[in-house]
Amino acid sequence: MAGKDWPAALFALLQAHRVRQVAVVPDAGHAALIRLVEASNEMRLVPLTTEEEGIALLGGAWLGGQRGVLLMQSSGVGNCINMLSLAASCRIPLPMLITMRGEFGEFNPWQVPMGQATPTVLEAMGCAVRRADAPEDVAPVADAMLGLAYNTFRATACLIGQRVLGAKTFGIAPQ
Amino acid sequence: MIEVSEAGLLRRRSVVPALLAERGDMLVVAGLGAPAWDVTAAGDHDLTFPLWGAMGGAAVIGLGMAIARPDRRVLVLTGDGEMLMGVGSLATIAVQAPPNLSIVVLDNERYGETGGQRTHTGMGVDLVGMAIAAGIPQTMRINLPGEVEALRQAIHTSTGPLFAVVKIDPESLPLALPPRDGAVLSARFRGALLGPAAHLE
């Protein structure tokens, strides 16, 4: 299942890590995984109005005895900065699967500042960050970051590179 | 005994212990600032999670808890400034609709920890109206001493989510500080709720 069907591999990982709450601000790159979670009886999909809600949600879930994961795109990382204090101060396992914008083949200039700053911002808040830039790397990196979060009680991020996802070109051929 | 100030407003340190009376095995989240001091003044508790930060997150922490533990009542006690910062979460909570979650805003229309500046609720914004518009099925407005007991009962029995605003006096009161190490707060909460297994996961 490794390689092209990495969304299915990610879903299998969420099952294996006993994830029960999946907090989401959608990204096209996460669309297939979101559909799998929606169809699942063992996971609760929680659509958010802004990404920092997901950190609070998963804090409450952990206090109540459930594991969660936060899905978002890189532009949402900026919305999370202060709320990451909750995970750091309270030792909450907070794995984040983040689809990248603003890098490989980006067309929209407004995506670039936050996309470029994403790993720096996460690391500045104490989050462990690893990247996957090829389809076959997504599942192993995600597995490692899920495990690191749950086993060592911290925020972790698996960045899924834009090279894996393909760039959105708004119908205009890249130059 | 619910106290009323000279201005005719409810006094928070009498309202909060009344709401927490006979709490049973209810889980409690307190928003940062005065609500955290109020729940501590009422008696610190292993199943109370007082926040020292994460402003705007109290209600959604309650949501995650309520989804995880449908067998328990979950009460979020927070302030108007904290609720306003995370007001979009009313939409998230309404969509999830956990029947066991109650959110009670202690509304003094002030940022009490930063000099008493007026919040939006002191300038016409109606949080209960926003909760109704979001689709929260149960809402209450509490202004009088005789209304507090009905809210306490609703927290334990209503098919929620329940959202209530209690208008309170903007008085400044002596601090009553809970433990402030988040690792201690989360470990004691999980230990009390989940038993020794909480620390062996």
Automatic annotation (TrEMBL), chain A:
Q: One matching Pfam family, short form?
A: TPP_enzyme_N
Q: Which UniProt keywords apply?
A: Decarboxylase, Lyase, Pyruvate
Domain Thiamine pyrophosphate enzyme N-terminal TPP-binding intervals? 9-97
GO molecular function annotations of the record: carboxy-lyase activity; thiamine pyrophosphate binding
Lineage, broadest ranks? Bacteria, Pseudomonadati, Pseudomonadota, Alphaproteobacteria, Acetobacterales
Protein name as it appears in the record: Sulfopyruvate decarboxylase alpha subunit
Q: Which InterPro entries match?
A: THDP-binding, Thiamin_PyroP_enz_TPP-bd_dom, TPP_dependent_decarboxylase
From TrEMBL, chain B:
Origin superkingdom:
Bacteria
Q: Which UniProt keywords apply?
A: Decarboxylase, Lyase
Q: Per its record, what are the GO molecular function terms?
A: carboxy-lyase activity; thiamine pyrophosphate binding
Q: Where is the Thiamine pyrophosphate enzyme TPP-binding domain positioned along the sequence?
A: 49-163
Q: Which Pfam families match?
A: TPP_enzyme_C (PF02775)
Ranges that cross the membrane: none
Give the record's GO biological process terms: small molecule metabolic process
Which InterPro entries does the protein's record reference?
Answer: THDP-binding, TPP_dependent_decarboxylase, TPP_enzyme_TPP-bd
Q: What is this protein called?
A: Thiamine pyrophosphate-dependent enzyme
List the source organism. Humitalea rosea
